[in-house]
């Protein structure tokens, strides 16, 4: 975990965006291993209503993760089939985190045991 902090306007978002853009070009599949693996990004931007709503946070991250690692689609689809309200932006973040993100991620980790940790860039979580 790397946490950038500082007063408003000092460039934290610019740094997060630059890191995400530079890492985005490094493609990794389930068959390869690379030191830097960007798997998802989320930028909370209150001027864009949907980007400010926490209910889209885990849904967005798991979509990005599954796009990179198609093998977890089965886990994600099963979770949604069992509980369709997980896609509701007003659903509990704990429920979304557990069913949509952590469980599929744990299953993926078993397949990627030789790889270094996956990277997610999240900006303005406090907004």
TrEMBL record:
Pfam families: NPHP3_N (PF24883). Residues 1-127 form the Nephrocystin 3-like N-terminal domain. This is Nephrocystin 3-like N-terminal domain-containing protein. It comes from the Eukaryota. The keyword Glycosyltransferase does not apply. InterPro entries: NPHP3-like_N (IPR056884), P-loop_NTPase (IPR027417). Coiled coil: none annotated.
């Amino acid at each position: 975990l790397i946490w950038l902090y500082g007063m408003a306007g000092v460039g934290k978002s610019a740094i997060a965006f630059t890191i995400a853009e530079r890492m985005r070009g490094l493609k990794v599949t389930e068959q390869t291993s690379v030191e830097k693996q960007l798997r998802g990004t989320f930028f909370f931007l209150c001027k864009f209503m949907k980007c400010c709503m926490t209910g889209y946070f885990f849904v967005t991250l798991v979509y990005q993760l599954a796009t990179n690692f198609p093998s977890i689609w089965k886990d994600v689809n099963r979770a949604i089939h069992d509980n369709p309200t997980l896609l509701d932006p007003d659903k509990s973040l704990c429920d979304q985190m557990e069913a949509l993100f952590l469980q599929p991620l744990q299953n993926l980790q078993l397949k990627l045991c030789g790889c270094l940790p996956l990277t997610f860039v999240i900006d303005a979580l406090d907004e």
